[in-house]
Amino acid sequence: MLTALAPSTAEAAAPVMPALPDSLLDRMRPLIARDLAPHVGKIDQEGIYPEAALRSFGAAGAFAAHTGAVPDLNAAIAAMSLAGEHCLSTAFCMWCQDALGWYLAQSDNPAPRAALLDAVAAGRRLGGTGLSNPMKCFFGIEPLKLRAKRVEGGYEVSGGLPWVSNLGENHLFGAVFEMADDPAHRVMAIIDCSREDIVLRQATHFLGLEGTRTVAVTFRKAFIPDSMVIADPVEGFIKRIRAGFILLQAGMAFGLIEGCIRLMRGCEKGLGHINKYLPEQPGHFEEALAALRETVQGLAATPFETDPGYWRAVIESRLAAGEWSLKAAQAAMLHAGASGYIQGAPAQRRMRESYFVAIVTPATKQLRKMLADIDGK
To answer: Looking at the chain, which terminus has fewer C-beta neighbours within 10 angstroms, N or C?
Structure first.
């Protein structure tokens, strides 16, 4: 059974507010205090899905800033970071939602944009990315797992994806499939989980981020109509969205690092006399985070840049975000000491969460491969 912290009917139907960068975070803070902060323990320990928080964040405009004619990725990253200071499961679900909106906003097919984008941007329809397998495929790591054949009015798709996050019975996600009679021909579409030929199953339990509704998805000769296709062929579309897809993940890292700094600062009163001997202090991470934010902010301002040097900088910034997440979480654990090592302690949760930042697609090892490929090594 998929369990969630469900919103009230009024919350689910709340209209989207304009995503103005100067007021978005002000709208987010009371929602985080009400819908997220009190539930972080249950999200982590009981795997509760933070649906109420996601829908209220959507109504506040958290998922809309980057989907307009002039996409503001930095506003989306900032909103995600604010939630991530408390809970990486929720920040990751926000990234999934942001990625879904990013696909729709950049599609050349007006049909899925007209049918779905407003609802996704407002948090009325939630969903995931489904691009873990394709992103690995396009960089030579694994084959595509979905195959299709052309039928009247669309495609019949078969296969399975082991892990897709932020899903539910009425959720959406993006998927890439190859044609059975021409594997080089690949198509991307939005998948509606409410279809009977799309089966969701929770097959795995994770060390952390159990509240992200990460499920296995099986396509049982699923019919995907042409009206849900967002890219055909997919290669040019992937190149257009890939920088935004990766840069948006910075919100998870920024929030986690900020939360770890807060934990370290919180230890100063009782443990400062001994923690001062640790080599990495809160100020060290504050400086690193400020520099990383500045770098990402500049890159996110031009997500469609085609210069090879820009793409390399995007990869390097994502790699740095994962590495600094690991360092900050380890430092927070060492500053907390034994009190951070008990079940339910924030420090040990942040440690588990930090590994996710480093292994979620594109993982540290994939990012390093991508850089090596650029260098021809």
So the answer is: N
